[in-house]
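> run fold Thymidine kinase
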Amino acid sequence: MPELVFFSGTMDCGKSTLALQIEHNRSARGLEGLIFTRNDRAGEGKLSSRLGLVTDSVEAGEGFDFYAHLVGHLSAGGRADYVICDEAQFLEPEQIDQLARIVDDLELDVFAFGITTDFRTKLFPGSQRLIELADRVEVLQVEALCWCGARATHNARTVGGQMVVEGAQVVVGDVNQPETVVGYEVLCRRHHRRRLTAAAARAAALSPDVLPVDRENAG
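> ok
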């Protein structure tokens, strides 16, 4: 039976890489799929991985109707055996309903990939609707790591290396960005709660309390 599957995880855990792998495996068996994404780091109409892999996709912007697009594609003689949708957290709940309708009415597998929560630890509306509707929710097993070495479970937005907790929910950025620009960092829950990024931890380590020195015995 066709399924709506939601692959979720933090940033930097390989979601887009898995999307590209699924596309490769299925196309290698003669199947044809449609790929959608929104606000990809590589630009409009691209699905890209941090490993350097990239492919063309359909940009699913605000108001885009997935179901109507699939019906139009099939009615025009096109073929679609499955659907891949990356950055699904950015979609509106109504668009997630359209993906579910593709599974139920057109009997196609839909594989959606996305972050579950934003930099404030709040569910993205698109991710919330996927959790509500998906036949399966798969948490990716490739664990991103916090700077401390623990499993990263939360996404932090940074400006100047410092974590921020206010602002628009959607600001496109990436991990490992220069400290002068808006970027993102994955953290464990403990350090997300403490707002302790890698840059903040380095700054703290460079300015410890000075230990007393016995000058008579020094040197």
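The helical segments are 15-27, 66-75, 93-106, 125-133, 189-193, 198-205.
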